[in-house]
Amino acid sequence: MGTRRAGGQRTLAGRSIVRSDALGNHAAPPRAAYILAMPHSVSPDAPVLLRPPRPGDFGWVVHRHGVLYAREYEFDSRFEALVARVIADFLRDYDATRERAWIAERDGEIIGSVFLASADSTTAKLRLLYVEPTARGLGVGTALVRACIAAAREMGYTRLVLWTNAVLTAARAIYVAEGFRLTGTEPHALFGPEQLGETWELRLTEAAPDRPPIASPA
Fold this sequence. Notes:
CATH architecture of the domain at 52-100 and 111-203: 3-Layer(aba) Sandwich
Structural class: alpha+beta
CATH topology of the domain at 52-100 and 111-203: Aminopeptidase
Strand content: 35-45%
Number of helices: 4
Mean pLDDT: 83
Low-confidence stretches: 1-22, 24-35, 37-44
Oligomer: single chain
Radius of gyration: 17 Å
Shape: globular
């Protein structure tokens, strides 16, 4: 596990952990914000911080999903509407004891996000994993997924599930590496182009896979 540092920080798989306790306008118990070391080609004074959302961040998540998925996958406005609905439901029903959200930030710029939402007393959902194109390959997606898994285990969930599309190969690779199993597929055209929807599941009662630390790209 981690080793304690001076000042109350810990290291986990070579990454610094600092404390943060805000989630927008919601009261929430103290949460960890993870700082990832950047690749050698990036200035060491530009770490990536995983922090709780602040006012305005939720709109950014909707906007960036809409822009990127339209550009890269030709998804239409129904996808942006779905993301907006997921965010609205999360904020309306938010339970600080059972749910979390993280924003990845570097040099004051948002570069990613993920949400952990409660499905029922034993099942949590990993939702809206997103990484900006300029931040791909830095381990941000893996860090966001690991934050969700750790929080779900900590809160006593026994299953973590997610829905995605087969075209999202980078995200799928993260899910496989973190121990998720594909449990179902279904063709659809919910957002315009024909897609293959996928349901993935991680049994949190099983031993965590032996995962390497988040490494800099070669």
